[in-house]
């Protein structure tokens, strides 16, 4: 397993699953851009990553990620994950209902040295809303 793959796996265990945002300054560049983040008045950089993780933990509990596949190409790393969680806060304008969901996601990150400079994602948000019973 490469150092970059270990970093990605560690980010999910220590940050996204727990909500601990203290590592943000060490794992992303000062100009980090999350192209998949919801529009927010948060500048690029570690603050943007902290805002995303904080938001997720304000609307979801029991967050778990299983990294299924990892592909490397130069300064980029792509990975497929299965994410599961329970909705406990307002999500996409829908009230909390305490139900769980499980979806597949594809993520791509670009590294600058040993830190992440950019992130893109393709998530099945529609599938999550269906599983939560918000839409048919």
UniProtKB/TrEMBL annotation:
<dbReference type="InterPro" id="IPR032710">
    <property type="entry name" value="NTF2-like_dom_sf"/>
</dbReference>
<dbReference type="Pfam" id="PF07366">
    <property type="entry name" value="SnoaL"/>
</dbReference>
<protein>
    <recommendedName>
        <fullName>Ester cyclase</fullName>
    </recommendedName>
</protein>
<dbReference type="InterPro" id="IPR009959">
    <property type="entry name" value="Cyclase_SnoaL-like"/>
</dbReference>
<dbReference type="GO" id="GO:0030638">
    <property type="term" value="P:polyketide metabolic process"/>
</dbReference>
